[in-house]
UniProtKB/TrEMBL annotation:
Main location: membrane
Naturally occurring in which organism (per UniProt): Acetatifactor muris
UniProt subcellular location: Cell membrane
Protein name: Acyltransferase family protein
One GO-annotated biological process of the protein: enterobacterial common antigen biosynthetic process
Every Acyltransferase domain range: 27-368
Membership in a protein family: Belongs to the acyltransferase 3 family.
Lineage: Bacteria, Bacillati, Bacillota, Clostridia, Lachnospirales
One Gene Ontology CC term in the entry: plasma membrane
Length: 378
């Protein structure tokens, strides 16, 4: 069984604040990262069931799973937006050398250190035993992107990292209006037109490749961070300002309405749109959540509380949690043949999710105790 998903890739804990102030810790990124990681674990808990069972036998559970997926798919765009917020920040100095030697190297090492064992496990499960030749085949599988499918995001983020120096160069020289126009074109071509085509059965052209939507999210991070530096956000992150005032409560209302709308759309059972991360309402929810997060008060490093320390430590585990959590899902669903469908979903699904999350967090904490893994991979 292969589990689909994504993750946040580790980045510097201290982000450059407004006007390049490094003393201000943008703690909202920690909270968003932790929330998105939990959402990814829930997403895989659900997709793992859907991939391994005939859901036509469980119409009610299928409807519930669709609602959950709609509500948690914002996590993937959120990770990409956070990456763009940090790596496309013009106040940070990130050259080609640093991107290759530090960040790209980290992704490549993670791909092979985790991807090869996972590919071997997949072969062992299929053949019912181990052969030494499986190791070499596993390396080839990783090179071809044929390992566990949750590793796909590492390939994506590696490409974005490689593009980052060029993007930083271009974004610094392109007029703001052109950037907004390009974002509108990408969003329309990757999200709106495919959605309209799906809902009304139309063939609208041109429609951009699905993968381009991640470039949209990455550049959204740039627009968020430069907007903050240019005074879009009020002092302390308490208000969002641009030609008027948009209070955090309005953003939260938009979040709740978006989530409610997605849930209601699935209740009839006739709305079958499945666009994953290019879904227009998923994009809207991710952007609203990030904007809402930016309104949370900033905190000076010298004024950290125990709560802030918790979020920082929890966020530090997020990348490792992402890498290891499918192991526990695979063991339960494939090896033990036990899924949430084996019991009452209302009770079993939360237990499977929490169990996977706790075991993954514990494993992540143990792995990060190894200095070489913590410093160069995790």
């Amino acid at each position: 069984m292969k589990v689909q998903g994504t993750t946040w890739i580790a980045a510097p804990w201290l982000a450059v604040g407004v006007n390049g102030d490094k003393r201000m810790r943008e703690a909202f990124l920690d909270k968003l990262r932790v929330a998105a990681t939990c959402a990814v674990v829930l997403l895989h808990t659900v997709t793992g069931v859907m991939d391994s069972a005939d859901m036509s036998l469980y119409p009610t559970e299928y409807k519930i799973f669709q609602m959950i997926l709609d509500l948690v798919c914002w996590s993937v765009p959120m990770f990409v937006i956070i990456s763009g917020y940090l790596f496309l920040n013009p106040a940070r100095r990130i050259g080609v050398g640093k991107m290759l030697k530090k960040y790209c190297r980290r992704i490549v090492l993670a791909l092979f250190l985790f991807g090869v064992p996972y590919a071997c496990m997949e072969q062992i499960a299929l053949e019912g035993g181990f052969r030494w030749g499986m190791i070499g085949k596993a390396f080839v599988m990783v090179l071809k992107g044929q390992g566990w499918s949750h590793m796909w995001y590492l390939y994506l983020i590696l490409i974005l990292y490689l593009l980052t120096p060029a993007l930083r160069y271009l974004l610094a020289r392109i007029p703001r209006a052109v950037i907004w126009g390009a974002e509108l074109v990408i969003f329309t071509g990757c999200s709106v037109l495919p959605w309209v085509s799906w809902v009304w059965g139309l063939e609208l052209q041109p429609v951009l490749p699905d993968q381009v939507i991640y470039l949209f999210y990455y550049i959204c991070g740039y627009l968020f961070v430069t907007g903050r530096q240019e005074g879009l956000f009020g002092k302390g992150g308490r208000t969002l300002r641009k030609k008027g005032i948009v209070m955090p409560g309005i953003l939260l209302t938009g979040i709740l309405l978006s989530a409610a709308g997605m849930v209601c759309s699935r209740l009839s059972g006739t709305y079958t749109v499945q666009m994953a991360y290019a879904y227009p309402f998923t994009a809207l929810l991710a952007l609203l959540l990030f904007g809402w997060g930016m309104t949370w008060p900033a905190q000076k490093e010298a004024q950290r509380t125990k709560a802030a320390g918790f979020w920082k430590q929890a966020a530090a585990l997020s990348f490792t949690v992402y890498l290891v959590h499918p192991v526990f899902i695979n063991v339960a669903y494939k090896a033990l043949h036990v899924t949430p469908l084996s019991f009452a979903v209302g009770i079993s699904l939360p237990l499977f999710f929490l169990g996977t999350l706790v075991l993954s967090a514990a494993s992540a904490w143990i792995l990060r105790r190894t200095a070489i893994l913590r410093d160069y991979v995790l």
